[in-house]
Specification:
about 200 residues; alpha/beta; Rossmann fold
Length: about 200
């Protein structure tokens, strides 16, 4: 069993905004499997793909971005998951729009959602000799804000040009999540890191 957490903010006013790229990827993956049942559990919306040991848990934290880690921690504790069984999907202003980057760990890079995850996972990671930074993450490029204030930019909607790049990126990101679940992080990194393929 593995857990994929897509970061974003709850509420219709935030739907389709740049900061909700993680939610979009999970929804894209879920849509491929027909009418999945999303239920409110562990401070988030949870859906399950597959059955038995091959289950893939999809989690959209409903705690707002800055507290995303609390929902992820709650789900991991409930299902008895290790930090190696987690993938976090998140937007990234340091990457060009449409670029995917999978990593086995790292810093939050100033992203408040990842900082929350790092804090929340510290206690779960310690028994394995790891830190709260040692979890896999899939970053979705959304471009730099330039002169636009950061909060306005990430909570704004994609431009038409960005949307053209985002659509294939969401499909490839969903493919990358499935590859990670089926074959592991190294295989997914080798196949999906970099600009979205045509």
């Amino acid at each position: 069993m593995r857990l994929v957490a897509g970061l974003g903010n709850p509420g219709q006013e935030y739907a389709q905004t740049r900061h909700n790229a993680g939610f979009m990827v999970l929804q894209r993956l879920a849509d491929r499997h027909g009418r999945l049942h999303w239920k409110m559990d562990h401070n988030g919306l949870l859906a399950v793909l597959g059955s038995g040991d091959n289950r893939l848990l999809l989690l959209k934290p409903m705690t707002f971005m800055n507290l995303s880690g609390t929902a992820i921690q709650a789900a991991m504790r409930f299902y008895g998951l290790s930090i190696d069984e987690l993938l976090v999907v998140v937007d990234d202003i340091a990457l060009p729009c449409g670029t995917l980057r999978l990593r086995p760990g790292g810093s939050s890079g100033g992203h408040n959602g990842l900082a929350s995850v790092e804090r929340s996972l510290a206690s779960l990671a310690a028994p394995a000799g790891k830190t709260g930074r040692d979890y896999a993450r899939l970053r979705i490029g959304i471009d730099s804000p330039g002169r636009i204030p950061m909060d306005q930019y990430v909570l704004g909607r994609f431009s038409a040009d960005q949307q053209n790049l985002l659509e294939p990126a969401l499909n490839q990101a969903a493919d990358a999540v499935q590859c990670w679940a089926d074959f592991g992080l190294t295989a997914a990194m080798n196949r999906f890191n970099g600009p979205t393929a045509e």
